[in-house]
């Protein structure tokens, strides 16, 4: 148990303030402030609740959206096939029965759960937030303790608004240096995952800090926390500050009037104490960072755009060598190759990692007055209805469409291919999403994770391209 006089990390502060009960083995029951639901991981939880004749304890602290298998071409519930239809219909039925607000296909603000939570002001500093979805870590960008849970835990939270938890270890990742032009939050988090490995964060909640993080927008911070899970971490956290408050002011569910002032007062205490001790610390300077691209089937198999695919015989352990070998085979690549010599078939700009307004602004800026390669099929899928409308009001849709992209409806889409947006066998994709596992975007599909501007540059050239070398004169 943490001694009250001890200096605390931000994680400990949030954790401690939500304990309802803690036993001598440090197992706690935590109060949950916000529970987010989507169509894929909630149906069994509701069924089970119904079977036990239980109610949803706090329907007003629960929000649902349809995102994973919605069509991005039509608002028709039948458009993504029968399984998708069943899951969406179940969600509608369950939300009606239990009085839970639902962002359904016809809601103008429907979108990816991790995009709409923050933009509607549901996600607030100091909260505990859960969802049956691993990328719930995204909400940590606001200084909220947020993590993914399994379906039986979804049921438990629905019924009790609490969750059994163990205290996790804490890791501090300090990001310093200067972010050069064309280097994005995506490049930073990919390079951190590359250095620490896909299990480097296992057992930890990671607090990201340092001058680079302090200067980041909320969109950039969300990209960082979103991918903390890809290094195995329980969650990512960033202390709230003026940038956080400015983002949250006047959002739909943000506190207002005197509640805003009271909240600010509390939010300002949400910082790791000066001498608090982390279980592990990692420091990275990003001044010399180049744009990153994954070459393998795991987010930690990543290189700079100007590097060759590594000779895995030089890797220090056999497991890593084997993984790299099979990844190269699946990806149809060889050590020593440059990805800038490799053609792409599809480009996907979307997902809860990189489908927010700033991501679309950045990508469209690269595409302005240019045409994508004839050999590439490219889609842009805004993270939410709000992002889509905002982008359209700025004319970004026109830039994408004129360049040759398809401008789609919001959803998870080709991030995981649960709708019709998939890669075919052997197709290669420059994707702004967060996972590149075998078959992630469709059976036999080959995914390379990149930033939105690197994805746009790949679309223009028909192969991977160093976005820093783009000609701004209007030629590709
Ligand atoms: C479908 C869902 C359970 C899954 C997750 O938890 O992450 C999905 O969102 C993903 O990104 O793979
Ligand atoms: S966009 Fe991708 S990573 Fe995010 S919740 Fe949807 S499927 Fe999961």
From TrEMBL:
One of its GO terms (biological process) is L-leucine biosynthetic process. It catalyses: (2R,3S)-3-isopropylmalate = (2S)-2-isopropylmalate. Residues 12-462 form the Aconitase/3-isopropylmalate dehydratase large subunit alpha/beta/alpha domain. SUPFAM superfamilies: Aconitase iron-sulfur domain. GO terms for molecular function: 3-isopropylmalate dehydratase activity; 4 iron, 4 sulfur cluster binding; metal ion binding. Its EC number is 4.2.1.33. Signal peptide: none annotated. Binds 1 [4Fe-4S] cluster per subunit. Keywords: 4Fe-4S, Amino-acid biosynthesis, Branched-chain amino acid biosynthesis, Iron, Iron-sulfur, Leucine biosynthesis, Lyase, Metal-binding, Plasmid. [4Fe-4S] cluster binds at residues 352, 412, 415. Gene3D superfamilies: Aconitase, domain 3 (3.30.499.10). InterPro entries: 3-IsopropMal_deHydase_lsu, Acnase/IPM_dHydase_lsu_aba_1/3, Acoase/IPM_deHydtase_lsu_aba, Aconitase_4Fe-4S_BS, Aconitase_4Fe-4S_dom, IPM_dehydratase_rel_enz, IPMI_cat. Its cofactor is [4Fe-4S] cluster. Pathway: Amino-acid biosynthesis; L-leucine biosynthesis; L-leucine from 3-methyl-2-oxobutanoate: step 2/4. Belongs to the aconitase/IPM isomerase family. LeuC type 1 subfamily. Heterodimer of LeuC and LeuD. Catalyzes the isomerization between 2-isopropylmalate and 3-isopropylmalate, via the formation of 2-isopropylmaleate. NCBIfam families: leuC, PRK05478.1, PRK12466.1. This is 3-isopropylmalate dehydratase large subunit. The lineage of its organism: Bacteria, Pseudomonadati, Pseudomonadota, Gammaproteobacteria, Enterobacterales. The gene is leuC.
């Amino acid at each position: 148990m943490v001694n009250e006089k001890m200096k605390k990390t931000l994680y400990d502060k949030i954790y401690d303030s939500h304990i309802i009960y803690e036993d001598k083995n440090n197992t706690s029951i935590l109060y949950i402030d916000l529970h987010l639901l989507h169509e894929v991981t909630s149906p069994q939880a509701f069924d089970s609740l119904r079977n036990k004749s239980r109610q949803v304890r706090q329907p007003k602290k629960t929000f649902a959206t349809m995102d994973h298998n919605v069509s991005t071409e039509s608002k028709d519930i039948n458009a993504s096939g029968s399984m998708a239809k069943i899951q969406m219909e179940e969600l509608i039925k369950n939300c009606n029965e239990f009085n839970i607000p639902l962002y359904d296909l016809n809601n103008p603000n429907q979108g990816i759960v991790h995009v709409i939570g923050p933009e509607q002001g549901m996600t607030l500093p100091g909260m505990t937030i859960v969802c049956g979805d691993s990328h719930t870590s995204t909400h940590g960008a606001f200084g909220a303790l947020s993590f993914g849970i399994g379906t039986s835990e979804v049921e438990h939270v629905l019924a009790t608004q609490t969750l059994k938890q163990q205290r996790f270890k804490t890791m501090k990742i300090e990001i310093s240096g200067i972010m050069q032009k064309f280097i994005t939050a995506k490049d930073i988090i990919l390079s951190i995952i590359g250095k620490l490995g896909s299990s480097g964060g296992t057992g930890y909640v990671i607090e990201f800090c340092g001058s680079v993080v302090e200067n980041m927008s909320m969109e950039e911070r969300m990209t960082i926390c979103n991918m903390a899970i890809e290094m195995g971490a329980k969650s990512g956290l960033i202390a709230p500050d003026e940038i956080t408050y400015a983002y949250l002011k006047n959002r739909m569910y943000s506190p207002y009037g005197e509640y805003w002032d009271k909240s600010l007062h509390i939010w300002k205490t949400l910082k790791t104490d000066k001498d608090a001790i982390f279980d592990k610390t990692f420091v990275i300077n990003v001044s010399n960072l180049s744009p990153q691209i994954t070459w393998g089937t795991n987010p930690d198999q990543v290189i700079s755009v100007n590097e060759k695919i590594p000779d895995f015989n030089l890797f220090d352990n056999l497991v890593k060598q084997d993984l790299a070998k099979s990844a190269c085979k699946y990806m149809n690549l060889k050590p020593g190759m440059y990805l800038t010599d490799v053609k792409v078939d599809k480009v996907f700009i979307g997902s809860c990692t990189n489908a927010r307004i700033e991501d679309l602004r950045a990508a469209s800026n690269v595409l302005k007055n240019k045409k994508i390669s004839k050999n590439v099929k490219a889609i842009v899928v805004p993270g939410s209805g709000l992002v889509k409308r905002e982008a359209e009001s700025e004319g970004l849709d026109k830039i994408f469409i004129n360049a040759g992209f398809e401008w789609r409806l919001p959803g998870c889409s080709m991030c995981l291919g649960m709708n019709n947006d998939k890669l075919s066998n052997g197709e290669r994709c420059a994707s702004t999403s967060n996972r590149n596992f075998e078959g992630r975007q469709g059976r036999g599909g080959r995914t390379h994770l990149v930033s939105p501007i690197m994805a746009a540059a790949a679309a223009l050239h028909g192969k991977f391209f160093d976005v820093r070398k783009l000609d701004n004169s209007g030629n590709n």
